[in-house]
Design brief:
With 231 residues, the protein is of the alpha+beta class. It contains five helices and eight strands, in the order αβαββββββααβα. It starts with a helix and ends with a helix.
Length: 231
């Protein structure tokens, strides 16, 4: 009887031990499953957040490209306007110098016209002296060749200056000047001198009219504004 009870008790203890072990393993598996589930949820949440961030980044990048494009367009517009504005100012300054509203200085050339030193007997004296037409020819050639300012014997000229010959004297805008006539021009001498000396050009024509002509480079020519001259 005692032996049978011992067997029963042992069997019961074995079953209880098995149940405890199974319960422990089940609890452990459940905890592991729950941990994996929580980990997966966290990973899913992070992935979802990452996708949202990538989408937001794409939208921001697109917006950035659009703004950069607008900035480039604005810069190009401002650059164009600046260039146009600079060109206008440059033209205005050239016109102001051309009409004599501002003083100007710089390198250039000096052309001297003198009456013929010898007049053959019986010849007409007027054929051997400097006339306004000769001065006009020189003045026009200098302006055409790029001179920014021209003067005669120190008197500033403009595009509409009045020049008239009265015997050996030339009147410029009401001011009389005797020969020799020193015509100064501010500009690039390496352009102005060749323009005057071109074969068959102005100096050759003046020489054929018995006018003595010299053209020299000058490093420093100064001319005051016409308004100051008038004062």
């Amino acid at each position: 009887m005692k032996g049978k009870s011992a067997v029963i008790i042992s069997l019961v203890m074995l079953i209880v031990g098995f149940l405890i072990s199974f319960s422990y393993q089940l609890t452990k598996d459940n905890k592991s499953t729950n941990a994996e589930s929580e980990e997966w949820k966290k990973e899913y949440a992070l992935r979802d957040e990452l996708l949202k961030q990538e989408k937001q980044n794409k939208e921001l990048k697109k917006e950035l490209y659009e703004k950069q494009s607008k900035v480039r367009q604005t810069e190009n517009k401002l650059k164009k306007e600046k260039t146009e504005y600079y060109n206008v100012l440059e033209d205005v300054e050239k016109y102001r110098m051309y009409v004599g509203e501002v003083g100007v200085k710089g390198e250039g050339v000096q052309v001297t016209l003198e009456d013929a030193s010898y007049i053959p007997e019986g010849e007409n004296v007027n054929s051997y002296i400097v006339h306004e037409s000769h001065i006009f020819q020189v003045m026009n050639e200098l302006f055409i060749s790029g001179a920014s300012a021209v003067s005669i014997n120190g008197q500033r000229l403009t595009h509409d200056s009045y020049i008239k010959c009265n015997g050996p004297v030339v009147t410029v805008d009401g001011v009389q000047h005797p020969a020799p006539f020193v015509i100064s021009a501010i500009g690039d001498p390496d352009v102005l001198i060749p323009a005057l000396n071109i074969a068959g050009g102005l100096i050759d024509q003046l020489s054929m009219d018995h006018i003595s002509v010299t053209a020299e480079k000058e490093k420093d020519i100064q001319m005051e504004a016409l308004l100051k001259n008038k004062e």
